[in-house]
Fold this sequence. Notes:
Number of strands: 8
Distance between the termini: 11 Å
Oligomer: single chain
Number of helices: 6
Strand content: 15-25%
Radius of gyration: 17 Å
Helix content: 25-40%
Shape: globular
Strand order of the largest sheet: 7-6-5-8
Largest sheet: 4 strands, antiparallel
Amino acid sequence: MxxxxxxxxxxxxxxxxxxxxxxxxxxxxxxxxxxxxxPFFSSSIHTEQSWPLLDGxxxxxxxxxxxxxxxxxECPPDYSGYSDPYIRAAAARIITAYGKGYSAEAALQALxxxxxxxxxxxxxxxxxxxxxxxxxxxxxxxxxxVSKSVCLTTLLATQGIISRFVAQAPxxxxxxxxxxxxxxxxxxxxxxxxxxxxxxxxxxxxxxRQALPDYGFETSSEIFHG
Length: 226
């Protein structure tokens, strides 16, 4: 039986697909030299979102909870999440620009490719972790692994694609990376939106994830419950 979350996602996905060619808040977007719509600079830059995080693993789980809240649209002051018309319109435009027809697989590929390749990686300052919602990331077009993962999962949710966060502790001592897993017909698959092949980072397609040494570990964190 479908959960209320899945039913809500399905409703939002149908609305997005129905409006792929209709007017939306991003229709006046400029186009870059590759012909890809650049809709995200037309809106005013929102203020920073900032919450003090705890140290160590407690801070990681606190950040994961905030990330999930950002996807659901529960973070002040704007409460922008997957049901925000701006986000839904952005997802539709990205799929149109990057996708090859419409299917769940094409949508997943388009949204992942966009978050990996078009949003520039920006490392957060040492010993500081920020969580920002997808709208801020789309407006700035920059983000670290946390921001890019929040952006990707939020965009996926507009299409009814279930996803979750996975925090990695490669050294076995502390978490220092997060990526996304999406639920497909083949099961959970890895989506690492910082694996762009730039700035010395590895390049990863759908299904790729950073390999962990024997002493490393990772833990998944759900975004929606029930």
